């Protein structure tokens, strides 16, 4: 019998496969420093809230995410009608692409940056305009502003930037936003903003009042440590953006356990502060020890570091060598730039273990 392959849509061939890290089925003793996750387990109160939600899963979850949006509104001072919830913040990114982009439209973003951004144009037939980062692995906002044309519908600035960990200060972001025409959506992806010491993480919210085209994308996956539940949110400058991303998605995109866990996690801001402190201490240790090893490290404002390997080091060999020593990190090649590693700040034990393993590999 001849097997005729299923005919898929042409755009499927354009969509890059997301480079998810490996290591989900490995033993506990492996240091998982590849996915910018929190090394801390969920708080007992969050676990109890999630368990409490499980008793009602014979019913659909609240499609309007009313309680979560109200709590976020109380915390950030943005009306609930301008807060979008997502099944992870990636869900909102993909919805934004569907709502804003189409063939002929352009989307501007820095590169290397978050791996999902090339997906936005590939899925919609829009034209990607990736703008190289500067020599310090930072967004080149001047150059990005210069790439905005009459065709631009969406500009994405990842701040702090994944994978390079660098951030640009809010006054530079403000100047940039002022240069973008008001009909072009500017999405500031702030998945890691809590870890940045450049500005108060919530200072960017002021941008929304003056710029209805600005959207701040946040997540419960990083500092809140709930990536396994999948909850993200967007603080939007206008209600129309929130309505658009809700319109293009399936109903009930945020499940009941995720809503309950996020609502509870928001109540524990003291824990958020503690986690930030620990992550910052860990990153300072990693940066200074890597510096002592003679490696160039980008100035991190996130819960991970980006280090450039020596010219004669083979990136794949180093990543393999680390894995053999029980440490998983991400190779730069999968993230847009060969010859670098992205290493998540782990527990104290993970950080020390990584440094010892790397020393053995780059000094040998
Ligand atoms: C910059 C950035 N934005 C968004 C996300 C998506 O996070 P989530 O979909 O888990 O909210 C990530 C995840 O790694 C990220 O690095």
List keywords for this structure.
single chain; 364 residues; alpha/beta; 4-stranded antiparallel beta sheet; 13 helices; 13 strands; binds pyridoxal-5'-phosphate
Walkthrough of the structure:
The protein is α/β, with parallel strands linked by helices and 364 residues long. It contains 13 helices and 13 strands. The strands form three sheets. Strands 2-8-7-6-5-3-4 form a seven-stranded mixed sheet, with helices on both faces. It has a four-stranded antiparallel sheet with strand order 9-10-13-12. Strand 6, helix 7 and strand 7 form a beta-alpha-beta unit. The chain starts with 30 loop residues before the first strand and ends with a helix. The site of pyridoxal-5'-phosphate has 13 residues, from helix 3.
Low-confidence segments: none
The portion of residues assigned to helices is: 25-40%
* Coarse shape: globular
Strand content: 15-25%
Main β sheet profile: 7 strands, mixed
Tell me the distance between the termini: 57 Å
Listing every helix as H and every strand as E from the N terminus to the C terminus, the arrangement reads: EHHEHEHEHEHEHEEHHHEEHEEHEH
List the ions, cofactors and other small molecules found in this model: pyridoxal-5'-phosphate
Mean pLDDT: 95
Assign the structural class, choosing from mainly alpha, mainly beta, alpha/beta, alpha+beta, or little secondary structure. alpha/beta
Radius of gyration (CA) equals 21 Å
Number of strands: 13
Tell me the number of helical segments per DSSP (H or I, 4 or more residues long). 13
Strand arrangement across the biggest beta sheet: 2-8-7-6-5-3-4
């Amino acid at each position: 019998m001849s097997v005729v392959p299923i005919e898929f849509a042409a755009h499927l061939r354009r969509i890059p496969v997301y480079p998810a890290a490996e290591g989900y089925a490995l033993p506990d003793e492996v240091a998982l420093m590849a996915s910018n996750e929190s090394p801390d387990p969920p708080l007992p109160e969050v676990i109890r809230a999630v368990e409490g939600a499980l008793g009602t899963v014979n019913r659909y979850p609240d499609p309007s995410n009313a309680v979560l949006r109200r709590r976020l509104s109380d915390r950030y001072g943005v009306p609930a009608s301008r807060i979008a919830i997502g099944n992870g913040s990636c869900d909102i990114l993909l919805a934004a692409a569907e709502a804003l982009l189409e063939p002929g439209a352009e989307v501007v973003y820095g590169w290397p940056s978050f791996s999902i951004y090339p997906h936005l144009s590939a899925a919609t037939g829009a034209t990607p305009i990736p703008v190289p980062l500067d020599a310090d692995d930072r967004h080149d906002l001047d150059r990005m502003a210069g790439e905005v044309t009459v065709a631009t519908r969406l500009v994405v600035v990842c701040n702090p930037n994944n994978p390079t960990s660098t951030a640009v200060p809010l006054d530079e972001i403000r100047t940039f936003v002022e240069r973008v025409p008001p009909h072009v959506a500017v999405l500031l992806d702030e998945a890691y903003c809590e870890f940045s010491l450049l500005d108060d993480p919530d200072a960017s919210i002021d941008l929304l009042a003056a710029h209805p085209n600005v959207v701040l994308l946040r997540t419960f996956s990083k500092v809140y440590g709930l990536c396994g539940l999948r909850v993200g949110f967007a603080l939007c400058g206008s209600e129309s953006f929130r309505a658009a991303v809700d319109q293009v998605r399936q109903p009930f995109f945020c499940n009941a356990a995720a809503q309950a866990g996020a609502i509870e996690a928001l109540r524990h801001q003291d824990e958020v502060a503690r986690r930030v402190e620990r992550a910052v201490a860990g990153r300072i240790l990693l940066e200074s020890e890597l510096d002592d090893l003679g490696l160039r490290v980008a100035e991190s404002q996130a819960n991970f570091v980006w280090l450039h390997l020596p010219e004669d080091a083979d990136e794949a060999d180093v990543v393999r060598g680390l894995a053999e020593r029980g440490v998983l990190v991400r190779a730069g090649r999968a993230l847009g730039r060969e010859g670098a590693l992205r290493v998540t700040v782990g527990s104290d034990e993970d950080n020390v273990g990584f440094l010892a393993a790397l020393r053995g590999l780059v000094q040998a």
